[in-house]
Amino acid sequence: MSREIRAHADPPAAVPRPRRPDLHELPLHIQRWVVDTLGSGIAHSSTQAGGFSPGAACRLVLDNGERAFLKAVSATANRKAAALHRREAVTAGSLPPDIGAPTLLSVFDDGEWVGLLMSDIDGRHPAQPWRADEVERVMSSLSRLHENVTPAPTSAVRTFVETHAEQLGGWRRLAAAPPEELDAWSRRHLDRLAGLERLWPAAVDGTTLLHADLRADNMLLVGNDVVFVDWAWACVGAAWVDAVAFAPSVAMQGGPPPQWLLDRCPRAATADPEAVTAVVAAVAGYFTEQALLPSPASLPSLRDVQARQGHQARAWLRERTRWR
């Protein structure tokens, strides 16, 4: 299996991440909130690797031996990250305890700083490049998760269409004003891509609670299980949408091709192939458009990562449409 994966995958490139502040670098009022909320001093703080937010992501060991996880970001440093922290506070607070997601302990929000205290998960991110056994474990865990959250066990999240209506219109915007940097295949098929993209809202209807932001840095391997973290984009839709959105990042990071993942998503077996292709088109359009935008000052590596996911998504879309 490992040889099969490597035969289809591009070599993963190292991704520079923004430097995250540690606990002692946060404002004193944030540090006081952490100690007061947890009811104990902090014996040790370590920064969790991964992700693209410039905010703190601290694994805390308390003086009493207990553990917790802190996420905190300033709206001045990154307004979008602060908004996502607020969204995750609502979502995480509504998730049932039996799905294996981290437990939300407390929220801090003074309008400038947003902080979330959560249970700490004693696990590690999947290896990079992806290992065959870990890809299999993630897909099996994702299928079990979807079974446990269908129908969605919370009413605090919106539908996939409501959450992503503005984001997933990349091809239509590119068709209206094609940039010079656009790749030749996309430029050649822009009108067809824009038309295909218009079909995705009707394709994603479903009752499953979706994570909708799956990447290697948003999951932790814990023994034989996988815990999915960072639920800021959670929404409701067709279960197979999680696999479609996840697949380009796996291929980008040395894993199997996107269709390999989709073939291991049971809900995809009964999905309309044309509906799946429409969502692949929407995902490809999103990454293609985003990669051509100026880089955010606080996230200098983001556009490169989006460009590489766009490359994988377009290759998958080209296979599915057979457009040359």
The level-1 CATH class of the largest domain: Alpha Beta
- How would you describe the shape? globular
Distance between the termini: 30 Å
Mean pLDDT equals 90
Secondary-structure element order, N to C: HHEEEHEEHHHHHHEEEEHHHH
The level of helicity is 40-55%
CATH superfamily of the largest domain: Aminoglycoside phosphotransferase (APH), C-terminal lobe
CATH architecture of the largest domain: Alpha-Beta Complex
* Total number of domains: 2
Annotated CATH topology of the largest domain: Aminoglycoside 3'-phosphotransferase, Chain: A, domain 2
Q: Sheet bearing the most strands, described? A: 5 strands, antiparallel
| Count of individual helical segments | 13
Major sheet: order of its strands?
Answer: 1-2-3-5-4
Round the Cα radius of gyration to an integer and report it. 20 Å
Low-confidence sequence ranges: 1-15
Structure description:
With 324 residues, the protein is of the alpha+beta class. It has two domains: 96 residues, 2-Layer Sandwich (Phosphorylase Kinase, domain 1); 190 residues, Aminoglycoside 3'-phosphotransferase, Chain: A, domain 2 (Alpha-Beta Complex), CATH 3.90.1200.10. It is 42% helix and 15% strand. It is built from 13 helices and nine strands. It has a five-stranded antiparallel β-sheet, sandwiched between helices. Strand 4 and strand 5 form a beta hairpin. Helix 6 crosses helix 12 and helix 10 crosses helix 12. The longest helix has 20 residues. It is globular. 42% of the residues are buried. The N terminus is likely disordered.
List the helices and strands and how they pair.
Elements: H1 2-8, H2 28-38, E1 42-47, E2 56-62, E3 67-74, H3 79-94, E4 104-109, E5 113-118, H4 132-148, H5 160-164, H6 170-176, H7 184-188, H8 190-197, H9 200-203, E6 208-210, E7 219-222, E8 225-228, E9 235-237, H10 240-252, H11 258-262, H12 273-291, H13 302-321
Antiparallel strand pairs: 1-2, 2-3, 3-5, 4-5, 6-9, 7-8
